[in-house]
Write a structure and sequence with these properties.
single chain, 86 residues, mainly alpha
């Protein structure tokens, strides 16, 4: 008896031809995509600023000399190429 009452009170599922996508949903989707892109851009900026501050030694680390690291890496690569293979 209760089952029959619940079946009659529930909403019927609309037919597929009665349902269509709306412009509102598209606009919301595009705004959300824009928000995610903006957050990603902001995150990259903040990470670059933090890395730059770390490289300058502002967090108690040793300051980083990128040019010296690149020269050392190039010297190591050159030494490996000159070494005979076994």
């Amino acid at each position: 008896m209760l089952d029959l009452l619940l079946i009659t009170l529930t909403d019927k599922t609309p037919e597929p031809e009665d349902v269509k996508a709306g412009w509102t949903a598209l606009i919301i989707f595009l705004l959300l995509a824009l928000a995610v892109a903006g957050l990603g851009w902001s995150l990259v900026r903040q990470l670059r600023k933090a890395q730059s501050a770390k490289d300058l030694g502002l967090y108690g680390d040793e300051p980083v000399d990128r040019e010296a690291e690149a020269r050392a890496r190039a010297e190591m690569d050159a030494a490996e190429r000159d070494e005979p293979t076994r």
